[in-house]
Design brief:
Distance between the termini: 40 Å
Strand content: 15-25%
Strand order of the largest sheet: 3-4-6-5-7-10-8-9
CATH topology: Aminopeptidase
CATH architecture: 3-Layer(aba) Sandwich
Radius of gyration: 18 Å
Number of helices: 9
Order of helices and strands: EEHHEEEHHEHHEEHEHEH
Number of domains: 1
Largest sheet: 8 strands, mixed
Length: about 280
Amino acid sequence: MQKLLCSAALATVLCSLMAAQVEFRRVDRAVVESRLKEYVARNDQREAEIKKLFAESGCKDKYLSEQTVRSQLPPNVICVLPGQSDEVIVVGAHTDKVPAGDGVVDDWSGASLLPSLYQSLDAEPRRHTYVFVGFTGEEKGLVGSEYYVHHLGPEQRAKTVAMVNMDTLGVGPTKVWASHADKNLLRALSQTAASMKLPLSGVNVDGLGTADSESFAEVKIPRITIHSITQETWPILHSSRDRLSAVKMNDYYNSYLLIAGYLAYLDKYLAPPAPAVRKTEH
């Protein structure tokens, strides 16, 4: 396994990951943290804030849209990074919160990373098309993600090769819901973490809750959820303790770096095998 080298001094980072050359722009830590700190307390304002952050990161015009889900809910916010093919990698996080707390951990921590991840991948041409989605209504029963999935046509579903979900980041080192992860996606994440020398461990949350990734699993789209929760930190969620001070900024930025590298790696890792060359007889 080759070492992944990412220089903090460079705006664009050239990373040698496994046998593939993976490039992504490293967004400055101050920018990532500032987007986290721009959380708003009201659900009816959080979609608009995410849309504003997307526009500031460079995603706008026809590539930035809203998807109306229910009249009483804010819309899903969708940002598209076009690739060289119509195969899609969906990157999602939910924007809504419960009444208790500020909803910074659950899940502004994931939603506010979406614009930074778009910015990281936009630096280089991509084979896959990336679709970044801020889902509405997760706390009401995965409403936004189920609506998104059920309004994909059969061909769109077949072209969606992965769904990477982010939920509750930054209360500790990066974790993955391994028991509810596609094996290939989990293997790629483990390889990325090892190559980047960033922490990653499996912590399953079966029976404790659900996530937007499960809407995609229902229609057989490979999915993975990245989080930071342990048994000790689980009580932070849906409580008055869910506020900015609960986030450990070093862990949060490391999660951003890992996910950015992972998404760039998936563009190579999920590429179809080269067609076999047929030998000619002489």
